[in-house]
Write a structure and sequence with these properties.
Elements (H helix, E strand, L loop, with lengths): L13 E5 L3 H13 L3 E5 L2 H11 L3 E5 L7 H9 L6 E5 L4 H9 L4 E4 L4 H18 L9 E4 L2 E4 L4 E4 L2 E3 L3 H12 L7 H9 L3 H5 L1
Parallel strand pairs: 1-2, 1-3, 3-4, 4-5
Antiparallel strand pairs: 6-7, 7-8, 8-9
Helix pairs in contact: 2-3, 6-7
Length: about 200
């Protein structure tokens, strides 16, 4: 994660469209953009992973049959680090192919040729469910997002509106504890233990 992050407005969802057919990328880019989404596109699986790691989209629309790395490979790679929703697209109508995609971690599946309106409806439904779960850390493993605040628990770094803010060790531990348990009651003992660790003198006071 860089010292400065190009975050989107918290009210604007972002979608990554991955398909090796230019016409499909163009149609979905246009239609989803008109719905108010920020759209990123990729023509193959390798480029898709690069865009995903850089832009952290809220949802991926993923074709199966692609050059360099197919949709199954992309899905597997993404699922190692993220629970971002994935809608898979394929020209293969065999039930076994659809089951394979779902077992690899896809959230939904549509067979080509598909209805753009139906796809848009599924996108809205998935994103509505995600909004209902906020705050959440589904986007990237180890990152907690609460509005414009991002907490990277792997590097123990905090960003506000894309700019890193520097906290003391105790301040960071306190923020991470509260952000990871929104709406939950935290006992005094747990609060002190998580914040001060084995500093028994501090806990006693």
């Amino acid at each position: 994660m860089s010292e400065s992050m190009n975050n989107l407005s918290i009210d604007q969802h972002s979608i990554l469209v991955v398909d090796d057919e230019p016409s499909i990328r163009r149609i979905l880019d246009t239609r989803l953009s008109m719905m108010g989404y920020k759209v990123f596109t990729a023509a193959d699986g390798v480029k898709a992973l690069k865009v995903f790691k850089c832009q952290h989209p809220d949802l991926i629309i993923l074709d199966v049959m692609m050059p360099k790395l197919d949709g199954y490979g992309v899905c597997q790679a993404v699922r190692k680090i993220s629970r971002v929703p994935i809608i898979m697209l394929t020209a293969m109508s065999d039930v076994g192919d659809r089951i394979t995609g779902l077992e690899m971690g896809a959230d939904d599946y549509m067979v080509k040729p598909f209805s753009p309106k139906e796809l848009e409806s599924r996108v809205r439904g998935i994103l509505r469910r995600l909004d209902a779960l906020k705050p959440t850390n589904y986007q990237i493993a180890g990152v907690i997002e609460m509005g414009s605040l991002q907490i990277d628990t792997n590097k123990q770094q905090v960003y506000l509106d894309g700019e890193r803010i520097f906290l003391t060790y105790v301040e960071y531990r306190l923020l991470e504890l509260l952000a990871s348990r929104p709406g939950k009651t935290i006992s005094r003992q747990e609060f002190l233990q998580k914040t001060w660790g084995d500093n028994k003198e501090a806990i006693a006071n």
